[in-house]
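pinned: reference chain
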Amino acid sequence: MNDNHAEKNNIVQAVDVCIDVLLNVAKNPDVRLTEIAQNIGETKPRILRMLRTMERRGLVRKSDTGTYRLGTTAIVLGTAASTQVDLVRIANPILEELGQKANETTQLRIIDNGESLCIAKFEPMRDLRVQAMIGRRRPLTAGSYKVLLAYLHPQVQQQMIPEILPRMTKRTITDRDKLISELEKIKRQGYCVSFGEVSEQLVSVSVPVLAFDGSVIAAVNVGAPAFRTQRSDVDRFIVLLKDASSKISARLGW
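pinned: its structure tokens
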């Protein structure tokens, strides 16, 4: 038990030092191994092992003169982080405005590791409402977040759809061909409506959010209890969602 504890602590410490090395390279472009060791108080052999690992993964790159600077993977991570932070900052007041107009729960979701991930939300002040949680994940193949899947390149889309689709309720689509046909329909109409696909008590409507280059970066959503949601409510949500999506997209540069 103590050995496992010690091993866990060593692993965490190694990651901690690795982050220190990466941050040092980020703050001091074209820094040398000796300087990194002096800056963070670690041995050169240990830092060199970390740098070689990070170099292999594209987080840092070594110049012909032996100095280090950030690699392309780090740049991709930085761009993604910046975009997501901007996305949440821009979306939050618009989600609140949307939620107040719809008087229902609103969310902003992105694709993360093959799932939809909630990164922002608003809940109205009413006793019975859909509970949203930042960080909660859902399958891309069920519910209105299929809208995120619908706009992917066909080849990427095929890779993201598992051979066996998880069934969440009796309304969940579990046939692959039927799902692909549904995704084509979603892309044509520009929104997705789910009646009880994730939870039988839930109606969910999602519309894509566009980045500056026209790619779909996120989905904005209204979720409501099924017992009080009529088709006329769904139609109203679609109009409100399209307006909210346009506002977020415009502020992202689209």
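why pinned: The radius of gyration is 23 Å. Residues 2-76 form a domain with the Arc Repressor Mutant, subunit A fold (CATH 1.10.10.10).
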